[in-house]
Predict the structure.
Amino acid sequence: GKIKRDKNESYIYRGSDNSYYEKFADGTKKCIDEELPFDIPDNWAWCRLVSIGSWSAGATPSRGESQLYNGNIPWLKTGDLNDSYIVDIPESISDEAFSKCSVRLNPVGSILMAMYGATIGKLGILNIPATTNQACCACIVCNSLDNQYLFYYLMSQRDAFIKLGAGGAQPNISKEKITNYLFSVPPLKEQLLIVQTIEAILNKM
């Protein structure tokens, strides 16, 4: 239920000089104060998004093989993302497609983000288990993090993700760019309070 670091992941900590440092697997470290998007309270922490769950992009089964579609497994495209809960997904794939393609069945509560084109940064929270195409990145959130807090955090950083995707013929961000992004982690009770406050404000609009 806690955030666990892979042996190759970095670790972010606050030094005695109040600056933030990132320590890497090879033992080297660097100051990351210039990268931090905002200040956080003393009881919060910084990490990379890779540390807070299991991230995966999907795949598209061959359109030329009709038996791979119209099955019982929901298959989401970025156009289905609605910046809210996903309760209906028009397309589906078959068990054969699931076994043949590099897709993952993401559980209820997974956070989805679009990585390509005009939909970069578009978000969704699964209300049904679903697979996705390769233009969508999904995160199964660890137990020490509230998935709605992650959802609102990613939404607040959408402009930054769009900038990360600029520069090519077709704007896009990779899973690596997403998971390397800095993420502020409050204690769980504060995460829940932040979500409640945001939703109370939204309900009044």
User: Anything to note?
Assistant: The mean pLDDT is 93. The first strand starts at residue 11 and ends at 14.
